[in-house]
Amino acid sequence: MAFLREPTAWIVILVVILLFGAKRLPDVARGVGRSMRIFKAETEGLRTDGSTTPAEPPAVAATPAPAAPVAAPAAPRYLIDPVTGEQVLAQPVTPPADGAPRA
Prior knowledge:
two-stranded antiparallel sheet, 2 helices
């Protein structure tokens, strides 16, 4: 507790109490602790010294992979017209082939 002998420590403590209030200090401290734990967990992988070797790529199989199943066509999408309230078919917007603006 030697840091409490310095006047700057008391000024910092006073400013924190004035900013947050004595009732909210436990919540603030709990939130800071959680944030520090999350930050430590996320940066744990960055602390390695680089001595690890990269993972070996998987070996290529000698047999060909089975063909992917044919996907069913997507179901049509419907939207609600904001003006009339009717259900309308949603059409994809494609630009004109000649690059001219739409009329």
